[in-house]
Amino acid sequence: MFPDKVEIEEYLLRDAASPVTSRELMAHFGIGENNAGEFISLLDSLTLEGRIVEIKGGRYAHPSRVGLVAGRLAMNRDGFGFVVSQNAETPDVFIGHREIGSAMHSDFVVARIERRGKKPSGRIIRILKRGASRIMGRLRMRKKYALVVPIDERYYRNVYVHRDDLGGAADGQIVQVEITSYPIEDDVPEGIVVHVLGNPGDEDTEAGAIALKHDVHIDFPEAVKQAAKRIPNKVKKADIDSREDLRGIPFVTIDGETAKDFDDAVQVDVAEDGTFTLRVAIADVSHYVKPGSKIDVEAYARGTSTYFPDRVFPMLPEELSNNLCSLVPREDRLAMVAEMEFSRGGRRKAERFFPATIRSVHRLTYSEVARVLDDPDSEEAENLSDISSSLFNMWELARVIRARRKERGSIDFDLPEAEIVLDLQGQPEDIVRSQRNRAHFLIEEFMIAANEAVAEFLDGRHIPAPFRVHEEPDEVKMEGFRRFIHNFGYYLGSVGKVRPADLQELASRTEGKPEERVISQMMLRSMKKAHYFPENLGHFGLASTHYLHFTSPIRRYPDLLVHRILKKAVGKGRIAKKYKENLHSELEEQCFHLSSRERVSESAEREAISWKKCQFMRDKVGEEFWGFVTGAATFGFFVELEKYFVDGLVHVSSLKDDFYHFSEEAQALIGERTRSTYRIGDKVRITVERVDVERRQIDFKLIPDTEEVGSNKLEKRDERSKKKRRRRG
Length: 729
Known about the structure:
The structure is a single chain. A five-stranded mixed barrel has the order 4-5-6-8-7. The protein folds into six domains: 5-63, Winged helix-like DNA-binding domain superfamily/Winged helix DNA-binding domain (Arc Repressor Mutant, subunit A); 67-129, CATH 2.40.50.140; 134-200, CATH 2.40.50.700; 230-438, no CATH class; 458-554 and 568-601, no CATH class; 618-720, CATH 2.40.50.140. It is α+β, with helices and mostly antiparallel strands. The N and C termini lie far apart (87 Å). Helices cover 33% and strands 26% of the residues.
């Protein structure tokens, strides 16, 4: 049987006595000459992924057995970097400036470890794949040429651009340059300008620069725009006739006030015996976006929609996302429906999935629904009298489903998040705590229920899909988390392997306490990131045995894939074994790509939020605020303002009373002489010292009168009290 990548990797890691040639590998796995080409391609793929390495003599080995590490190069703006392996158990390898060679930030490289230990160091010996083909920067004109100075200082080499390749850009403008020639040793890379964003400080320029910096697509190609224009404005009668007609059922959409793309609608019936029937209708994007079409190729490349505080870069053109696929009220729309039957206690008893036509009766907002649920006699309840009783049925079902989910240990992180309030010019005028109400929880529970039902249905038929996988936490990280919460007087219930229920119990105990946010953030950091995978491995955070994403195909490509697979599964005819094998093979690559696109989108969204926060804080230099320490490092500690959810750094050089050293175990800065301590969770008072909007950095300075507000305040106060009592005695 032909081996897969994991089997080859495992053999070289655990069983091979020494590095082996491709011929020796073929002999071991029983590969004949007819399959030699396919097998060599598999080895090439593994090598490019850094999972195995090819060394002198055309021999293959696992990198860990020959003193090598493959991973992503993360540069520092001071000229050094770290090679970060995809294997969480492999420590990062420090790479000094002289050992980087021609590699650039984000390149996928192989490094040779030259000094081992807890913090190994080495040199880059091979570049497997360039990480960036395009770089954002500011154009600097010279007499005979131009340079693009990267905005991201981790790309510490300027890019040379010939005057014929400026694309109409002027000196000082923000541009994106495509690299046409990578550096050799100390050379500079060469490139051509492919995007002229505009002048620094302009809102559209800055937003576009952030998006392109993180490889988020800001414009649709002309071919995609033309394809979108050819899509009809109305649902065809033939499409309606070919599926179940649910237009008589009073579906409603419930979204935020500013939402334009409505991809889910819900409805609940209650039988006389208390049994609930929940219908979750999801926009049937797969009906309009066919595999391999121009719109599909672009949607896959994007992977997801990206949301900035003042704009969205959608996965699909507006003709689909805001019109034909959006479940707008009182319009016929095609949908995939998950119909689920629940007992009065919230246990799912049955489910079925089918294509249908719906017509939602109301476009509701979270705040409207919450006011109805909170006050049955409210004006909203009167205005929505035709469906108010249905909303109460929905809440009752959501409540019992939520209770069952908590019983199994599902972790709820209901942390307060920042909502940036913008004026008409897109400038931030306030940062407030985002509000979550019963309507948010209602929709959340229904979407989780639908996602679980589809995942269980497909897995039960052994059909591969892009399952949403959240693996168990790393035991070493969890041990560190145990030590961290011990500083606050908390502990985890179980000994050994941590269960979701243990973390949920801890979240319940910290709810409403000053340390809640800090402990929840550290809990999240201690857990692995969820990702997509073609096999069902369960979801630790939700304590769910089956989970995937089905409910947002307008803004997430994995959901679109699930719709296509689900349609095949519920259609007529038996699914062939070959189809499943081919599907699994395709999903391996697709899941990796879509997980990476999700991370790209998240990083762009984080920077966009930081940009707006810096804009908001730039006129507050010199003002004083209370805040909490949210992180510590060798160079200082981070503080989040209590009022605005804004983070800034108190640099260690600004602490004048002592020499401070970072304790990794305590996650704190500790004074050498005074033993003054600043650790995560401490409340401090600071003044805003500097705001750099371009670098997205805010510097705080500790107010001297509150230097004892940190962890040592109580101890010092107790010591002073004891001394006073001794003097009185």
